[in-house]
Amino acid sequence: MSTHDLTILLVEDDPFARALLEQILSDEGYRIKMAENGQIALKIFYEESDIDLIITDMNMPEMNGLELIRRLRDEGNDLPIIVLTSNREIKTAVSAIYGGANAYLLKDENIEDTFVHAIEHTWDHYQLARQKHSLMIKLEEKNQELERLSFLDGLTGISNRRYFDMIIDKEWRRAGRDRLPVSIAMIDIDSFKLYNDTYGHQSGDDCLKQVATALKDALFRPGDFIARYGGEEFVAVMPNIGLKGAMEVAERMQQNIKRLALPHKRSDVSEHITVSIGLACMVPDHKTDTTQLIERADTCLYSAKDQGRNRICHTK
Question: Please, which residues have CB within 8 angstroms of residue 283's CB and are 6 or more apart in sequence?
Fold first, then answer.
């Protein structure tokens, strides 16, 4: 928007000054609305939504310029405001700027030369500030999206190892404070290398995606989550749930995998894709950490593999 397309609300109680300023604004092609004090100005502002900029005298009856500015700023209005005053004291300018004015202009013999320039400068600065604010919001949104993506596995769309490492520590500390259990499940697709060798890596990627979704769908509670731990291995975190509850989740996972019915003709345990699961549950204390919990689940996973795959093993 050009400065000459602006609608300006001029707030001035002195008839002579108001007429002079109105003439200057009219000659420049501005649309003008006028008020004799802050009270009238507020009424005009709220009744007519097309005000782009306010020019207000500082000293006026009923409501002065500073009070007008504070009312507008307190109510969240950020439109540009220029303060006019005959007072040359610096504290008057400081009060205006700290009160929320965008610019401060003396009413003196040079007003005709400085008035329009002050409007153009204030409007340009206001537009630049708005553009900067908009860009900062977009940048923040982009940063948040990048951070979100940095926690996702690019292939499966579920959480990645980085997110798991961060969240497990948080859940462990929370559970330690509340003396609550934390359960995890380490999950591995049985004979996945043979699957890749038989059906190709594209089919292997599709298998990983479907398995990830099936595992995620087995988690019902908001605090539970599944992450890709690496390769064909996944890990589920289940805060505030004991071994019995974790076992129910693991059984749902195996049922979901079974329902996928993904053919695996070279598997030695089934005609379809299966998973082995190792469960561990601990109540954190000052002698334990997440490493021990993960190691226990990992040991149970190896036990499930050693015992023939396609099964769930857990700590006692």
Answer: 175, 179, 180, 181, 182
| Closest among 181, 185, 182 to 278, alpha carbons compared | 185
Q: What is the pTM assigned to this prediction?
A: 0.65
Half-sphere exposure of 162 (CA within 13 A, CB side): 8
Domains of the chain as residue ranges with CATH: 3-143 (3.40.50.2300), 161-314 (3.30.70.270)
The C-alpha torsion from 159 through 162 and 165 to 169, rounded to 10°, is: -90
Residue 111 makes CB contacts below 8 A (sequence gap 6+) with: 20, 21, 24, 105
In whole angstroms, give the CA distance from residue 21 to residue 30.
11
Q: Supply the pLDDT for residue 11.
A: 93
Of the candidates 75, 232, 233, 248, the residue annotated as catalytic is 232
Residue 109 appears among annotated catalytic residues: no
Q: Which two tokens stand for residue 274?
A: 């299966």
Mean pLDDT by 10 residues, the chain (316 residues): 77 90 90 92 88 90 87 90 78 76 81 86 91 91 86 94 94 94 97 96 96 97 94 97 96 97 95 97 92 96 96 88
CA pseudo-torsion sign 192, 196, 201, 202:
negative
d(CA 13, CA 300): 84
Quote the CA–CA distance of 151 and 163 in Å, as a whole number. Answer: 5
CA–CA distances in Å: residue 231 to residues 15, 130, 183, 206, 306: 81, 47, 22, 13, 19
Q: Are strands 31-35 and 53-57 parallel, antiparallel or unpaired?
A: unpaired
Asked if residue 302 lies in contact with residue 277, where contact means CB atoms within 8 angstroms, the answer is no
The pLDDT assigned to 50 comes to 87
Tokens of 284: 């954190």
Residue identified by tokens 């990992």 is 298
